Structure formats: structure tokens, C-alpha cells
Amino acid sequence: MSGSFSVSGDFTASIDSQDDGRVLRYSFEWVGSPLSFGEAISLMDWEDGFVDFLSELISQSGFSGLVWECPPVTRATLSRQFEFVVIDTGKPYHPNPDPSSFRSYLEPLDGREGVSTFRNLGGDASLIIPSWVDGADYRDLLHFLKSASLTHKRLFWRSISDAIQSGLDDSPIWLSIAGSGEPWLHVRLDSQPKYYQHKPYRKEKPS
């Protein structure tokens, strides 16, 4: 699959199929010019049309299960063109959702649509999880994007933007969603590419 997809005349995604279709690499333009990481992070915070476009693109990947990975970002690399990959896992990692491992972070949200951001136990990464709502199947990114309300999805992307902006400095942030561990969607903002599968991103040495 290779080509482009546009929405509202403003955003275009070029989709490059790699590794016999197992990897899809997306890069973006905004009103005909390359969209930078800095612009993308800002747009996630306030432009519903952009985040709705991201949700739709990933949902329409054609994969039954996937991981989502971005190249490392630092303050010095905000001007590079925004891109990410989704990688086919063949099937979802988990047969059912189970948020119990994150109960202490979800309980304060009391079943309302929301998002929780917190440090992992090792203190070297931030995690972002959507709240549990009645009947929710948020076992992974695909299930969340296909079943969550528009409001919840927009809150999710906005929380990613907020976390990057608050943590951005000269050290790289590795932004990804792997999901093989806990059966509940969780975004990682890590200091290392611990669970990365895409070799070009994993081997990058950001300046």
C-alpha cells in the first residue's frame, strides 16, 4: 500500500509500505508543506481535524494488531518532518482487556472519560493510559481507536502532546505503543527504545 490520504484539504499523509507490507510508514504535510514534529505536537493539543485524521489512518491500516512507533524526538529535532510507523503483529497481543494493573491510576477518574499520565516503576519512562468506561475494550491502540468516543480519542492525543511538551529537552523521547505486556492501552515516553521493533528508529542517535 503506497499513496496519500488527505482530509479537509489541510493534511496529507504519504504511506510507504515496507517489509512486504508488514510495516507502514506515514509522513505528513500540512497545506502542501512538510509537517514538522514540533507542529504535529502542537496540533495534537488543539486541532481536532489533525488528531481525527491520525485516528482514522491508524484504524484503516488493515492490520488486526499493531505496534506504533515514532523516531526519537528532542528539542533539536522538532523541525524534522513528522512521521511514524505501524507494524503488523498478526493479531492482537491480548484476547481481552484488563486494566487491573493500572487500577490505582484509573480509580480517581471514576469511570469518566479521561486519561492518566504517570511515571513507570523504574522512573525512566512516562506512561499514558485512557480511563476505563463502562463496556470499554481498550486492550490496545486499535481497539481504543475503533470503540472510544471522539471526545475520549481527542483527550488521548492531547495528553500525548502535553506529556511531550512538558518533558522535552536535549535528551531523546522515544514515543511508542507496544502493548505486549499489559492488556490495557498504554503509551510510553521512554528515555531508551526498550521495546522498539523498527530498526531504523531503534538505531537512531539523535543529536
Keywords:
HIT family, subunit A, ten-stranded antiparallel beta sheet, 2 domains, 6 helices, Gyrase A, domain 2, globular, 25% strand, alpha+beta, 207 residues, single chain
Would you kindly provide a written description of the structure presented here, covering whatever features stand out?
The chain is of the alpha+beta class and 207 residues long. 27% of the residues lie in helices and 25% in strands. It has 2 domains: 3-88, Gyrase A, domain 2; 100-196, 2-Layer Sandwich (HIT family, subunit A). A hairpin with a 4-residue loop joins strand 2 (11-18) and strand 3. The protein is globular. The model has no long low-confidence stretch (mean pLDDT 94).
- Structural class by SSE content: alpha+beta
Strand coverage percent: 25-35%
Q: Please state the CA-atom Rg, rounded to the nearest Å.
A: 16 Å
Oligomer: single chain
Order of helices and strands: EEEEHHEEHEEHHEEH
CATH third-tier fold name of the largest domain: HIT family, subunit A
How can the largest sheet be summarized? 10 strands, antiparallel
Please, how many helices? 6
Reported CATH architecture of the largest domain: 2-Layer Sandwich
- Poorly predicted spans: none
**What is the total number of structural domains?**
2
Helical content (DSSP H or I, runs of 4+): 25-40%
CATH class of the largest domain equals Alpha Beta
How widely separated are the two ends? 32 Å
Shape: globular
Number of distinct beta strands: 10
**Average pLDDT figure:** 94
Topology:
Blueprint: E1 3-7, E2 11-18, E3 23-30, E4 33-34, H1 37-46, H2 48-59, E5 66-69, E6 83-88, H3 103-106, E7 115-119, E8 125-130, H4 141-147, H5 150-167, E9 174-177, E10 187-190, H6 199-202
Antiparallel strand pairs: 1-2, 2-3, 3-4, 3-6, 5-6, 5-9, 7-8, 8-10, 9-10
